[in-house]
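Q: Is it fine to ask for two folds in a single conversation?
A: Yes, each is treated on its own. Send the first.
Q: Here.
A: Result:
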Amino acid sequence: MRADRVLSLLLVLQARGRLSAAELAARLEVSRRTVYRDVEALSAAGVPVRTEPGPNGGIELIEGWRTDLTGLTEPELNALFTSAAGPEFESAMGKLAAALPGERGRRAGRMRDRLLVDSVAWGSRGFTSPHLRVVQDAVFADRRLRLRYRRAEAPATVREVDPLGLVLKAGAWYLVADTAAGRRLFRLSRVEAAEALDEPALRPRGFDLAAAWREQAAGWDSGRVALEVLVKVADANLPLVLRVAGDRVIARPRQGVLRMAFPAVEPAAAFLSSFGAMVEALEPPEVRVELARRGADLVRLYSPAGKRKADGIRHRPR
């Protein structure tokens, strides 16, 4: 039983009055059987919902009863619109926005202009940025942001941006923003600090978040990741590996196993070898072969025979 679906049903009934099961099923994009099951869930939760059979019957709330859910404050609505992920949640929130009457409906629509859920998979990155709330508040309040941002292996830089919208894709948050150098996409997991400024953000008239996302994300698609490596990590070493690996970790398929993304075999082996025996590459086999080759080179270099050879080179007469 999905709570967001039941919430949508409740708000539709409150906003629209009596509707038939068929009308509710069409509006909520579910079956009639699901509608009746959700009505039973509302009744069990103490909501006075009434069902009348027959051609002129329907489903409605008892006259005079209202929930205070449509009295949500703007911060509460913000939190609601950013509290879950996935295409089902996006669909439910669309229905919720349609159900909210008057000014609250317009407010919900305004939030949807600033939040996008892209359900096309890039891998599952389930790590929430500690700076999400600050960035989210600035996006919804149209305030400028000062970010300390780290791009790949480069040092962190401080940037002031005009935030335009948040995108949630495969469990990872992205910020679409305008900068002095043009429109940019910022991955929130790379934001090391965020501060809302006491300045209004400049927002282009008629800005379309979905279109901007498509344009900015054109080079970020799954084809950009050439190699995925399955890595086994002991629980004791997991916090360190996660901290150092950062955005290379794209999924945690099971306990003690990480899936990491690399552009090729060589960078993958170079990175994983820096952990020594703390991690083990499980697949693909070409990464294991490269790690074994590197290990053999080190053994030859640091073995007693290798040491004698190096000493002979160092002490060879000139």
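Q: Second one now.
A: Result:
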Amino acid sequence: MKATILLGTLKKTGLSNTETLCKFLSGRMGREGIGCEIVKLINHRVMPGTYSNIGKGDEWPSILEQLLDSEIVILAMPVWWGNRSSEIQRVVEPLDELHDKVMAAGPSPLGGKVGGVVINTLQLPNLH
């Protein structure tokens, strides 16, 4: 079984609290035999828009392929000013392409997957 965590931290360097939570969760899943990869979105180029392949250098298509290849998909984000991070918003928008397939009476490419959300709203102690 494979899981992908999309990490929406805004911290380019250093370990953020949200990333600490993701590493903790990944370790727990690993103990259960679930392979888990954390995709730190701020280190990838995801172009704005609601469809894949929208620009040269856009890494969204490969990230989407990884999500579709996973049985578990988790969005992990800090909350800033009462909203999700801009990095998570940038991946929510192109997911609209999948919604269009469902609206056209097709099956959802995300159907049958387990989904989850990690939301960091507090300063956390070290969980290691």
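Q: Anything structural to flag on that second result?
A: Two points. The first helix runs from residue 17 to 31. Residues 101 and 108 are 7 Å apart (CA to CA).
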